[in-house]
Amino acid sequence: MTTYHLSTAQTPHRAYHIPHLSMLRPLTWLSRGFADLVAMPRVSAAYGAGVAALAFLMVYLTFGASSFVLVPFLFGGFLSIAPILSVGLIAMAKRREEPNNDQSVVKILSLNASSLALLGLLLVMVFLNWIMLSNLTFGGFFGEVTPTYGQVRPLPVMFGKSWPFALIYGGIALVLALVLFRMVALALPMLVDQRVDVFNAIFASWRAVGENWPSMLVWAALLFLLTSIGIGLYFIGLIVVVPWLGYATWHAYRDTLILEEGASD
Known about the structure:
Layout: E1 2-5, E2 15-18, H1 25-39, H2 41-64, H3 74-85, H4 87-97, H5 105-110, H6 113-142, H7 155-161, H8 163-184, H9 187-193, H10 198-211, H11 213-232, H12 238-256, E3 258-259
Antiparallel strand pairs: 1-2, 2-3
Helix pairs in contact: 1-12, 2-12, 3-6, 4-9, 4-12, 7-8, 9-10, 11-12
């Protein structure tokens, strides 16, 4: 077990212990997240339905704007902003874990609202830049920046048509996804849990994920797989997947970054 000390002058004594987790530890997070889902079925389904409707709306508006080329790339973009969409779920998991916590979800989120808003803004910027980068990469290889509906194909089909496109686009996507995951995986629940600034939360997440990379790679793969299934089921699957993974994210944070006793707000 190692210890990470926050560098901000406002909280000089706050420290987090980082245990070494087994590779299959993420299965425990999924199990605990599912228990939260079962314990709060109505609010979870409503939250998941809202996120699913938002994802569907993104695709619908893309079709309406005749920007068909963006449709295959929206999947990666959705993964980049999905974390900030789960803040309410993380707050609900925190509230359920603390029986004596009489604060509402809104109250929990308001304690560090400015930092959460800043992280949300950063993720939206990543989303927009990812879409533009995807469009430019597609145009560079296929010579069509705004293709017709009939020319749009799923990413695996486009990969099959151009191996250089598959290698370059896939490589860029993988590197960016891993960097973003390492930065945000534990930063978001930390911001919900404690009054910490964005940069300290990102540094803590970077350190903790790096020290537990085998289990965190499994966790990232599970997030990708389950989200893919949810989207593949015409977004309906997100009604269950989104709250399930949102709750599990809270438990991932609680297992990986353990606040030193007496250091909480």
